[in-house]
Amino acid sequence: MCWRIWNLARQKKQLEEKEAQRMAKRRVERERGRREATADMSEDFSEGEKGDTVSDLSAHGESHRSRLPRISSVETMEAWVSQQKGKKLYIVLVSLHGLIRGENMELGRDSDTGGQVKYVVELARALGSMPGVYRVDLLTRQVSAPDVDWSYGEPTEMLPPRNSDGLMDEMGESSGAYIVRIPFGPRNKYLPKESLWPYIPEFVDGALNHILQMSKVLGEQVGGGHPVWPVAIHGHYADAGDAAALLSGSLNVPMLFTGHSLGRDKLEQLLRQGRLSKEEINTTYKIMRRIEAEELALDASEIVITSTRQEIEEQWRLYDGFDPVLERKLRARIRRNVSCYGRFMPRMVVITPGMEFQHIVPHDGDMDGETEGNEDQPTSQDPLIWTEIMRFFTNPRKPMILALARPDPKKNLTTLVKAFGECRPLRELANLTLIMGNRDDVDEMSSTSASVLLSILKLIDKYDLYGQVAYPKHHKQSDVPDIYRLAAKTKGVFINPAFIEPFGLTLIEAAAYGLPIVATKNGGPVDILRVLDNGLLIDPHDEKSIADALLKLVADKQLWAKCRQNGLKNIHLFSWPEHCKTYLSRIAGCKPRQPWWQRSDDGDENSESDSPSDSLRDIQDISLNLRFSMDGEKNSGSGNADSPLESDDRKTKLENAVFTWSKGVLKGSQKAGLSEKADHNSSAGKFPALRRRQHMIVIAVDFDDITDIFSSARKIFDAVEKERSEGSIGFILATSFTLAEIHSFLISGGLSPTDFDAFICNSGSDLYYSSPNSEDNPFVVDLYYHSHIEYRWGGEGLRKTLVRWAGSIIDKKGENEEQVVTEDEKISTNYCYSFKVRNPGKVPPVKEVRKYMRIQALRCHVIYCQNGSKINVIPVLASRSQALRYLYLRWGVNLSKMVVFVGESGDTDYEGLLGGLHKSVVLKGVCTGAINQLHANRNYPLSDVLPSDSPNIVQATEECSSDDIRNSLEKLGFVKG
After folding, report:
1. How are strands ordered across the β-sheet holding 493-496?
2. Which of 6, 199, 435, 860 is the most buried (most CB within 10 A)?
3. In whole angstroms, how far apart are CA 32 and each of 179, 194, 614, 921?
4. Using CA atoms, how far apart are residues 936 and 929, in angstroms rounded to an integer?
5. CA angle, residues 36, 38, 39, in degrees to nearest 5
6. Please, is 513 exposed, middle or buried when counting C-beta atoms within 10 Å of its C-beta (0-12, 13-18, 19+)?
7. DSSP secondary structure string, 418-438?
8. Residue 231: CB partners within 8 Å, gap ≥ 6?
9. What is the pLDDT of residues 849-866, one digit of tens each?
10. What is the pLDDT of residue 46?
11. Inter-residue contact 182 to 139 (CB < 8 Å)
């Protein structure tokens, strides 16, 4: 036995040493990257820091911050909020997992339905009550499953304000706060958050449709006929952060993010415990996909809202995309009006969660009846939950130590029971109450929860704690206030012993009911106790520390009374109105962004409602016969390293001139009396042609040879020849090739540009339409698309860093060295930097390149394409799948009536093309080579994100013919048999 114990201890020590070495190595790598970033910045800035003003950043959406007033004091916030009374803001919150409803929340039902659910519902309700906010939508998943209540299947639910005094006059037809449930994933199954990843694109498409429709409705009500776009989209937790980033990029509106708990921190905690390997953790929690979603949220967010400073300094700093030191340097440079050369960092803001306190009346009595009822005020009957708890105790009058948490290992309830059992004085003075969610049968609980509960029951038996520990099986959410009141009535203490607590909302709730608190020193409780000054911090790993703190508060009545008084005095600082004032003031610091073609100052000429009548003449007016180059190449000035921003400035002026001139021409045409009939007489000339299609086929098969793409295209053309000749089906080509390459092959292959309605080129960074009546230029570039995707595009600063990175990839062959990656200046464009790869096997995977760029605060989307022979670097939220959403938003192309053809593998943006409302046909036998997998490009398995059971995906037979392709389309209901 001794030998076994010694061996286990040795193995544990080895695991701890190995983990410590791994963490130390990671820290060294990150710090090396930060030093390189600082060195690169110094090199860039030395080229002309004094001459580079903040106007250089305006094209990238950061210059506004230097012009905005700082909103720091409560008085300033209140003044700002008062100014919003004439405004009509639309805010979208996103929280995907768990079960969300406005009343009778089933908190503790499972690990997904916890404090976050309450937080987002109360935030939505509170924001909906603020002056200037017209509508708040909380988007979540619609669940119509037999094992959950019917209310979670309702499409919408209004969240009426708690206090409606003075609000009714401001209420409009569609105003207020709402829960909007978007169907995605299996329709009749409730899924845990770890299983939602494959279905997030479907949610994004559904949410995009809702926001688009709502923006029109609000525009009719309060926007003077112009769409009212969200002032911000706020994602909660990693899954919603991923979705909010895609929505923000699709709509071109600011994004906010709240992590609630973070994947990297959880991974380190689990590895430290030593029970699971990294592979087992990822299999259970899909932790690597979660971490990548959090990194993407950092890439896309204007603001990251945290609950505590500790979350920023100790948790977010673990991420490649955030470093507190570098963030401060960038902010300092922006304040001094100097260029950051394409480097961007989200603004981290601490806003403590709020709570409703108006209805709370702290109990002043105790179990001895100090303020019991009298003839004027008779005592009311005790709540039922009191009886349910008291039945466990031999002496129910003793002070109650209360813990309220689900039975999860990270909540550390077993250590609490050990501490209680080991401390005899504490057992003699107090009782322990554990509110651990709801259960009917231990065997029906999840294995993790059941394991924790059984461990607690064994400890109760070991220390003979019968009559001293309560662990009721059931409670309702409405019982929670009564539980707090009972603990306060017994002069008890609330404890949160979690290993780490991101915030600790229950601590604020307990303080509002007059309970002193004991809480973990890891995380949010540090900041909460700093404000409330109503309790003690403990080391959650130290049983003695826990017992000593509890005993001190229970035994010292003066200390208990002082902590209670301090908590009640300071609790107002955590109210929802205070939270919302700060929240809205931060949104005011974001540069307003929205779809360019529907800005309120553009009038109706370019709005979607009028676009069906846009003629080819109009679009040729927009092009101004400027003869845009086929591949959108940079103009001669863009490659000048000494003036990297000069070409961007010229381009912006040119685009503004195009927009202004085209509006004037269109107005003049309308005044001249161009009739709708005249437009119909040349229906073939309407622009773009995809507006008239009933269905759309997207050819997004990836090859290293463009001839193979058109070989597949011809098969698909033949499969739908009848519908194609009728004009009911249109075609879009989505590829990593440039338009010049596509045009060259179209000519040599005997095809016409008009065979396709649109061309998504350079991996989604350029968008063109075919122009059937233009011999000089058969393609028209969509300038609005460039304005749409340029958010956080690093421009020349990014290009320089990429060139330096490419120069560091060397293949050593004896005494000679060969550069593996070289810049392809010939085909690079303003929004796509292209690189040739001589030996794909020597190139680091995408995840490493992405990490390298993020560490240096450069935000981009790195795509390995054409069988690994090419690298395209494009704006962070640009991609082929995002371009398809743009076509839906811009031209109304119905995503549910779209089929995307892909191979079995492909470019590293491949996974984005498989999920969503559109249908997909996978061509078996295409893109199956090992090199097409491009090593381990993802941090997570592709199976984690592929919707394998989706009815929207079919596989064509290997080496399929046109007939096989048509059969696949018939299975999807896309064509008739």
Report:
1. 469-470, 431-435, 400-404, 493-496, 517-520, 535-538
2. 860
3. 45, 33, 54, 44
4. 14
5. 60
6. buried
7. HHHHH-HHHHHH-EEEEE---
8. 89, 90, 91, 253, 254, 587, 590, 592
9. 999 999 999 999 999 999
10. 46
11. yes
